[in-house]
């Protein structure tokens, strides 16, 4: 009996020992591979001078959210084209702040998104922002019809209605002798109201009812927590799930997902009715959610529930939060520069006459206003930086190179303030974007919507909404800065102000 048990136990013990040995070998091989790749990257980065780093913190102790923007700009002047930024002792990223380097990175087809994008996955899933390769191309091709000229044209009245609700609230404040408003909250709700109506054919009434405040708060919390995590990335990543920040992040994800799930489920119920489905399919152009729910690949298979929610979450976030940032900083720029504000108002009044509703044809006539919008986007890009992980080695125009696997951060905020490209970059000058002044500018000097194959698919949607918001606001109000509450720029996922953006309003006579 004992010998029988021994004969069974011995092979089992050998298999267990072999499994342990193979496991150790596998881990060692991974460590060796990581070390070799890191050695190549570190060696390549020696060609890029940068600020001194701490042996443990890297540059984390220097770069905090309240001063990262100014610091990156000043370092860009000291270290031309690019410099290394270390997240702790083991993870370097090359910060690019020159358009020639940006052109090299963005012109490389489909480099993989990098930090902070994989931190976004629990929130927005693997949608267009995070995907790469063939699946990214498939989703991009699938979603492109949602931004067709005729589709965007139909959105202008919906955007106009949402902006008017916001302006009515502000007019009510004036009547109550509250002539100061904080833009971000109201503009956020307006942009969410607009994206819900346009892309999802969903009337949320979020500007007049409090049911969407939790979603806006969830988005703010998620942006803040991800930005906080990036600053201490190398220490938090392995143990993040054990932290209080992780629990707060998961709670904010649940709140955001509850909102998008409701939108998806209500449309699915509608589409389950044959008559409603037939009515939707007969529409000349489907909206964003229609396309997601009705699309099939060559095998007749639609998007999985996981892919569906990822794209809805991605566009719900990208389509309202970035636009809200752009509009808020645009109105702030108008308040700071009354001469440009007056000229825009004069142009808009000349286009619209006595009408109080903007039309599609009006947008193309807003020449000077468009220059003002672009100059605001230069100084205050809604997405201050984008990150990439190189899927192939790259050699820049000056001969310096990076190997595959390198992390690169394109600092759009820094590129837009690069003195090699922009004269007096801190000055607000819309005429920079006149045809004659734009003709000879570097193709990648102005990147509010990135560039290349991964440029923002919704950039025309965003520009149209900014034009609508600017036109209707200036027809109704004069804008003045609140000198007692100047904004403090802060970089989260989106460019924001840590203390809000406060303006005084005066009704236009």
What's the arrangement of secondary structure elements?
Elements: H1 2-45, H2 68-78, E1 82-87, E2 91-96, H3 99-106, E3 112-113, H4 117-124, H5 133-143, H6 149-175, E4 180-182, H7 183-200, H8 213-231, H9 233-236, H10 244-271, H11 274-281, H12 288-294, H13 305-336, H14 338-352, H15 360-363, H16 367-379, E5 385-389, E6 394-395, E7 401-402, E8 407-411, H17 412-415, H18 435-438, H19 459-476, E9 477-481, E10 489-491, E11 495-497, E12 502-507
Parallel strand pairs: 2-8
Antiparallel strand pairs: 1-2, 3-5, 4-12, 5-8, 6-7, 9-12, 10-11
Helix share bin: 55-70%
How large is the count of helical segments? Answer: 19
Strand portion: 5-15%
**Rg result:** 25 Å
Q: Tally the beta strands.
A: 12
How are the strands of the largest sheet arranged?
1-2-8-5-3
Biggest sheet descriptor = 5 strands, mixed
What is the CA-CA span between the terminal residues? 103 Å
Shape: globular
Kindly report the average pLDDT value. 87
Stretches with pLDDT under 50, minimum 5 residues: none
Look at the helices and sheets and give the structural class: alpha+beta
């Amino acid at each position: 009996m004992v010998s029988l048990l021994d004969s069974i136990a011995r092979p089992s013990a050998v298999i267990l020992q072999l499994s342990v040995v193979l496991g150790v070998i596998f881990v060692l091989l991974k460590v060796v591979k990581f070390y070799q790749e890191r050695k190549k990257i570190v060696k390549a980065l020696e060609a890029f001078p940068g600020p001194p780093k701490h042996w443990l913190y890297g540059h984390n102790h220097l770069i905090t959210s309240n001063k990262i923007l100014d610091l990156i700009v000043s370092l860009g002047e000291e270290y031309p084209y690019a410099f290394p930024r270390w997240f702790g002792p083991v993870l370097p990223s090359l910060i690019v702040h020159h358009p020639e380097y940006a052109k090299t990175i963005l012109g490389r087809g489909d480099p993989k998104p990098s930090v902070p994008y994989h931190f976004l996955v629990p929130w927005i899933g693997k949608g267009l922002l995070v995907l790469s390769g063939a699946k990214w191309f498939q989703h991009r091709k699938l979603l492109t019809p949602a931004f067709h000229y005729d589709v965007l044209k139909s959105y202008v009245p919906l955007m106009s209605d949402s902006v008017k609700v916001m302006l009515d609230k502000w007019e009510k404040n004036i009547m109550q002798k509250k002539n100061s408003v904080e833009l971000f909250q109201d503009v956020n709700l307006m942009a969410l109201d607009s994206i819900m109506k346009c892309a999802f054919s969903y009337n949320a009434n979020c500007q007049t009812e409090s049911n969407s405040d939790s979603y806006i708060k969830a988005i703010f919390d998620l942006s803040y927590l991800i930005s906080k995590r990036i600053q201490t990335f190398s220490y938090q990543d392995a143990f993040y799930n054990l932290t209080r920040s992780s629990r707060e992040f998961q709670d904010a994800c649940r709140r955001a997902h509850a909102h998008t799930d409701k939108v998806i489920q209500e449309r699915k119920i509608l589409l389950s009715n044959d008559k409603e489905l037939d009515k939707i399919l007969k529409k000349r152009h489907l909206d964003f959610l229609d396309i997601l729910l009705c699309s099939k690949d060559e095998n007749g298979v639609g998007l999985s529930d996981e892919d569906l929610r990822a794209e809805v979450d991605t566009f719900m976030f990208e389509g309202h939060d970035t636009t809200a940032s752009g509009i808020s900083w645009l109105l702030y720029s108008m308040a700071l520069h009354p001469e440009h504000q007056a000229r825009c108002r004069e142009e808009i009044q000349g286009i619209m006459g006595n009408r109080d509703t903007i039309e599609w044809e009006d947008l193309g006539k807003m020449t000077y206003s468009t220059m003002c919008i672009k100059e605001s986007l230069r100084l205050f890009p809604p997405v201050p930086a984008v990150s990439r992980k190189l899927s192939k080695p790259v050699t820049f125009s000056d001969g310096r190179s990076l190997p595959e696997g390198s992390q690169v951060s394109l600092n759009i905020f820094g590129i837009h303030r690069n003195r090699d490209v922009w004269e007096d970059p801190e000055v607000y000058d819309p005429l920079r974007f006149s045809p004659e002044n734009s003709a000879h500018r570097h193709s990648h000097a102005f990147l509010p919507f990135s560039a290349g194959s991964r440029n923002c698919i919704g950039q025309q949607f965003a520009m149209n909404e900014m034009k609508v918001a600017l036109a209707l606001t200036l027809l109704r109000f004069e804008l003045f800065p609140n000198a007692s509450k100047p904004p403090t720029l802060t970089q989260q996922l989106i460019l924001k102000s840590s203390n809000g953006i406060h303006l005084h309003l005066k009704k236009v006579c």
